[in-house]
Write a structure and sequence with these properties.
With 318 residues, the chain is an alpha+beta fold. The chain has twelve helices and six strands. The structure holds iron/sulfur cluster.
């Protein structure tokens, strides 16, 4: 093992002994690993496990997803949030299944980070994770976890992306980049956590210059939260079914179904029944809901409904 800044042996031994038993850690199948990485971008691990099992059971290959309607993928994604991921995943499966003469990969998952990055919804982190874990490519993952570990190890309050990438690449254990990347991610997720790092049990504490004042590194980013006020018309038919429409194929609710909603919706003649608040990573949505009637509604379980829309629909029963 090469001599590097981080104690590679210590981190890898700790990872081998302490890693969480996550289902995608039992496979080298690039498609299954890709599904886990895309899910974990914005869904907690504990919630992601169920989604991963359902997705891999229904769509065990890119071919199976490419042949399905995007609505079915959205339906399985229901409740996981950030629905544009599901739509891009469907587009990704279709791209993989295109012939190479048309810019696709003949149904085979690309094997390098460079090729993986050409797929819809795949950024540098996801490409490096899949290429290293499934194919052993010696390429380092960089994300918020790695940046936090790097900032603390090297006492930098605001390291640039280039600095983090250079640090991650210079510390990479090239003989098993997949395990190394997962060990680094595990360290950031379970030990070197944002608020209460467990320095006393950290396997790489001896090289960490910032461990006495870990909370100072990195400097927290100031996130400007935006407020968005929306109006929703919840029209119900005589059987109690709401009138539902499919949302635009872009934005936070991309392709999901729900009652008509917008910033300037005409709700004249409808009855005000309450407000729903929904918190996203950078935005707080406040939806005022008005109730009316319609001739024929839609059975909500037959379409993909977002968590926000599920909250809106539940107002009818209150
Ligand atoms: S010693 Fe503490 S601050 Fe340093 S890497 Fe380990 S957990 Fe993070």
């Amino acid at each position: 093992m090469s001599k590097q800044y981080l104690q590679q042996n210590a981190l890898l031994s700790w990872y081998a002994a302490s890693k969480r038993d996550l289902p995608w850690r039992h496979t080298k199948d690039p498609w299954s690993i890709l599904l886990s990485e895309i899910l974990l971008q914005q869904t907690q691990v504990s919630r992601g496990i169920g989604y991963w099992h359902r997705l891999t059971a229904r769509f065990p290959t890119p071919q199976s997803m490419a042949a399905a309607e995007v609505d079915e993928v959205l339906h399985l994604w229901q409740g996981a949030g950030y629905y544009s991921r599901a739509r891009r995943l469907h587009a990704l499966a279709q791209t993989v299944c295109l012939p190479s003469s048309e810019g696709g990969y003949d149904g085979q998952m690309p094997t390098t980070a460079e090729e993986l990055r050409t797929l819809p919804g795949v950024g540098p982190y996801t490409a490096a994770a899949v290429a290293s874990i499934a194919f052993g490519e010696p390429v380092a993952c960089v994300d918020g976890n790695i940046r936090r570990v790097m900032a603390r190890q090297t006492v930098q309050t605001n390291p640039s992306l280039k600095q983090v990438e250079a640090w991650a690449a210079s510390n990479l254990y090239v003989e098993d980049a997949g395990d190394w990347n997962q060990a680094m991610m595990e360290l950031g997720a379970t030990t070197c956590t944002p608020r209460q790092p467990k320095c006393e049990v950290c396997s790489v504490a001896s090289s960490c210059k910032g461990r006495e004042e870990a909370h100072r590194y990195p400097e927290p980013k100031k996130i400007k939260r935006k407020r968005l006020d929306l109006t929703c018309a919840l029209n119900i038919d005589s059987l109690g079914r709401p009138h539902l429409v499919q949302r635009e194929m872009k934005g936070i609710l991309a392709g999901m179904w729900g009652p008509p909603m917008g910033e300037q919706l005409d709700v004249e003649g409808l009855e005000y029944i309450g407000e729903v608040k929904h918190v996203l990573s950078h935005r707080d949505l406040f939806v005022k809901v008005w109730r009316g009637s319609c001739d024929v509604g839609t059975e909500p379980s037959s379409v993909a409904i977002s968590s926000l829309d599920a909250k809106i629909l539940s107002l009818v029963n209150e």
